[in-house]
Design brief:
By secondary structure, the chain is mainly α. It is 71% helix and 0% strand. It is built from 14 helices and no strands. α3 packs antiparallel against α4 and α3 runs parallel beside α5. The longest helix is centred in the N-terminal third of the chain and has 28 residues, at 45-72.
């Protein structure tokens, strides 16, 4: 029941970030229903909520408060308390800590580019929040408990003994392959919505290259997901791409994933007219991808299961809403 309230609040706050119109409430509720909630029980529901869902809630709360501070022109006590505690909680987890500090860093830069001369007090608040997030994340990351866990080999011996033999290149590669295998070569409704929206915008702007991710996603669905991925005995149900497998299939899978990403980046550039929104899209997608890529540097890359996609999927969800906003502005709704 408590988590249900959290989801509702997340949808409501996301709608507030997008606009004041009531229709955004409905749109956000519908989009949140597409989130794969079964991921939340992939490695223990309570632990997953505390370590993955609530930190994302904290990030949305922070930016909702920042928007309200910007519009009101002053900081209320309850807003300051919410921002501080949400920052402390969200930075206590590596993925959301990186997401929060990264987005705030980019927001600080964007404000200097596009908000120069506007509300200098808010500029100071934004910069101060970025510094607070860096401080909190640094304290959490370099705490004795976290450093001790990073230096321990117990998790590796239990979950993935071969991790000890992985080179830096292998860790980067596995972070990438486990991410794209689950996003592009398994059913992901949020990804389907994303490439569909991009395809619609591309068709409208006659940017045929932007429709390629949708066509590739449809082709993969028709051919069957399991043709493109493997399930290692130790991966606990998570798909991966194995280039050592016989035949051209894994190389085709890897090539398709690069094409989907490449044409998505190009398609967004050609179809999103609002340059500020384009910057936000690129920022959210890149930082969200980084939050999952860093799992390649953890021996629990498979043991942590699908819950490690929480941050990136909420990032994609938000980008879907931005594309809907772009589409609606284009048809003057």
């Amino acid at each position: 029941l408590f988590d249900s309230v959290i989801y509702l609040l997340m949808a409501k706050m996301t709608a507030y970030l997008l606009g004041e119109e009531k229709m955004w409430d409905v749109v956000c509720y519908m989009m949140f229903l597409m989130f794969p909630f079964d991921y939340m029980i992939s490695a223990g529901y309570i632990a997953t909520s505390a370590n993955y869902l609530y930190p994302v809630f904290g990030i949305i709360l922070i930016f909702s408060c920042l928007k309200n501070i910007y519009e009101e022109g002053s900081v209320r006590l309850w807003e300051a308390v919410c921002v501080v505690f949400a920052t402390m909680y969200s930075t206590n987890h590596e993925q959301t800590g990186i997401a929060l500090t990264g987005i705030l860093f980019c927001a600080d830069i964007y404000w200097r580019l596009w908000g120069k001369g506007k509300k200098p007090v808010f500029a100071g608040i934004l910069h101060g929040e970025f510094l607070l997030s860096v401080l909190c994340f640094g304290i959490s990351f370099f705490s004795p408990g976290h450093m001790g866990r990073m230096g321990s080999v117990k998790e590796m011996e239990v979950w993935l003994p071969q991790y000890a033999q992985w080179s830096l290149a292998t860790k980067i590669y596995r972070g990438y392959t486990t991410t794209v295998a689950a996003l592009f070569f398994q059913r992901q409704d949020l990804i389907t919505v994303f490439v569909t929206l991009l395809g619609m915008l591309s068709f409208k702007k006659k940017c045929w290259a932007g429709m390629i991710p949708l066509l590739l996603e449809m082709a993969v669905k028709i051919m069957g997901y399991n043709r493109f991925v493997v399930f290692f005995p130790y991966s606990r149900g998570m798909p991966d791409i194995d280039l050592l497998e016989n035949g051209p299939a894994p190389w085709i899978t890897l090539f398709l994933s690069v094409m989907i990403i490449g044409f998505t980046v190009y398609g967004l550039y050609r179809t999103v007219e609002n340059r500020m929104r384009l910057g936000v899209l690129y920022t959210v997608l890149f930082i969200a991808a980084c939050t999952r890529e860093l799992m390649g540097f953890s021996a629990t890359i498979y043991a942590s299961s699908f819950r490690t996609f929480t941050c990136i999927l909420f990032g994609i969800l938000f980008c879907n809403l931005l594309l809907i906003k772009e589409w609606m502005e284009g048809i003057k709704i």
